[in-house]
Design a protein that fits this description.
Distance between the termini: 29 Å
Radius of gyration: 17 Å
Organism: Streptomyces macrolidinus
Order of helices and strands: HHHHH
Number of strands: 0
Helix content: 55-70%
Domain HTH cro/C1-type: 42-96
InterPro entries: Cro/C1-type_HTH, Lambda_DNA-bd_dom_sf
Pfam families: HTH_3
Number of helices: 5
Shape: elongated
Largest sheet: none
Protein name: Helix-turn-helix domain-containing protein
Length: 104
C-alpha cells in the first residue's frame, strides 16, 4: 500500500465512511504507532537527563541521525538496540504483553 492509498483510507475512516478490512494496513498502522510511542519515550527520558541527541548517540555507540529517526518514530529498533538505549538512558527495559481488554 503506497502513501496515497494509506492517506485516502485514513481520511475515509475519519469521515466515518465504511472502509474495507485491510490487515496489512492495520499491521503497518499499529507498527507506526508503536514506533512513535517508543520514540516519545526515548525523547522524554533523554530530555529529562538533559542530554542532546549527540550525547545519547555517543553513549550507545550510534550516530545522531539514528537517534533522531528513533525519536521521530521512523524506525522500529531491535531488542539489542533497545537494551543499548536503555543502558545509555540509565533506565530499565521492560517489555509487556497486555491482554486486549486491559490495554491502556
Amino acid at each position: 500500500m503506497n502513501h496515497a492509498e494509506w492517506k485516502t483510507r485514513r481520511h475515509r475512516k475519519l469521515l466515518g465512511e465504511a472502509v474495507e478490512g485491510d490487515f496489512e494496513y492495520d499491521r503497518l498502522y499499529e507498527e507506526a504507532e508503536l514506533a512513535h510511542d517508543l520514540g516519545q519515550m526515548v525523547y522524554d527520558r533523554r530530555t529529562a537527563l538533559g542530554l542532546s541527541q549527540t550525547e545519547l548517540a555517543e553513549r550507545c555507540g550510534m550516530k545522531q541521525p539514528q537517534i533522531s529517526r528513533i525519536e521521530g518514530g521512523g524506525t522500529v529498533p531491535t531488542i539489542p538496540l533497545l537494551r543499548r538505549l536503555a543502558r545509555a538512558l540509565d533506565a530499565d527495559l521492560t517489555i509487556n504483553l497486555t491482554p486486549h481488554g486491559n490495554a491502556a
